[in-house]
Amino acid sequence: MQEKVIHTTFNRKFFTSSQKNIWAFALRNVIRQDIYFTIAAVILLTIEFATEKSNEFSFGKTIAIGFIFYTAIAWIGIIERRIKLISSIKTQGDRFEKEGLESTYTFNDAGVTYEDKEKMLKLSWHLLKPFEAYKDVIYIKLKGSDSIAISLSRQELGDHDYTELYAILEEKIG
């Protein structure tokens, strides 16, 4: 395999978009589950109150109210995490912009290397899960974790480099 080297310079727009996409990608199943719970809670609550024969507090009402309480807490948690994420993106973006962060990604037979002014990360192919592409962003995750080690978007790479990288990753980690 011929070595593929990709150089990127920090772009706040790409960084912000990428971080928000990572958040959406990571939480997509949680959000879907919370939507289902919310729908189930509303349906159960509607059925319980529509079929009410007296002012008794039934077991079904208790479950429905518990579902409503659970979903409210879940949505509040998601909103809080989103607010923290946006704040963190702004803080990191300011720092990276000030430093003029430049990154280099190297893909070769040994694995993937990421390097910038602060750090260098070398990952062998056997440490990586099969990559995923979501909304024109390639996500490379570590085995044994759901952490995203590397994300590269078509916007920051351009069509040619994105297609080349996609082919390399298909060959190496499928």
Compressed to H and E, one letter per element, the order equals EHHEEEEEEHH
% residues in beta strands: 15-25%
Alpha-carbon Rg, integer = 22 Å
Through-space gap between termini? 15 Å
Order of strands across the main sheet: 1-2-3-4
Number of domains: 2
What class, by secondary structure content? alpha+beta
Helix content: 55-70%
Described by the principal axes of the CA atoms, the overall outline is elongated
Q: Biggest β-sheet, characterized? A: 4 strands, antiparallel
Q: Mean pLDDT across all residues, rounded?
A: 89
Q: How does this model look, in words?
A:
With 174 residues, the protein is α+β, with helices and mostly antiparallel strands. It has two domains: 4-9 and 101-172, Pleckstrin-homology domain (PH domain)/Phosphotyrosine-binding domain (PTB) (PH-domain like); 12-99. It is built from four helices and seven strands. The protein has helices at 12-50, 59-99, 154-157, 159-172, and strands spanning 4-9, 102-108, 111-115, 120-124, 132-134, 137-141, 148-153. The chain has a four-stranded antiparallel beta sheet, covered by helices on one side. The longest helix is centred in the middle third of the chain and has 41 residues, at 59-99. The chain is elongated and about 75 Å long.
Features:
4-stranded antiparallel β-sheet, PH-domain like, 2 domains, 174 residues, 3-stranded antiparallel β-sheet, alpha+beta
Short structural summary:
The chain is an alpha+beta fold. 56% of the residues lie in helices and 21% in strands. Helix 1 (12-50) runs antiparallel to helix 2 (59-99).
List the helices and strands and how they pair.
Elements (H helix, E strand, L loop, with lengths): L3 E6 L2 H39 L8 H41 L2 E7 L2 E5 L4 E5 L7 E3 L2 E5 L6 E6 H4 L1 H14 L2
Antiparallel strand pairs: 1-2, 2-3, 3-4, 5-6, 6-7
Helix pairs in contact: 1-2
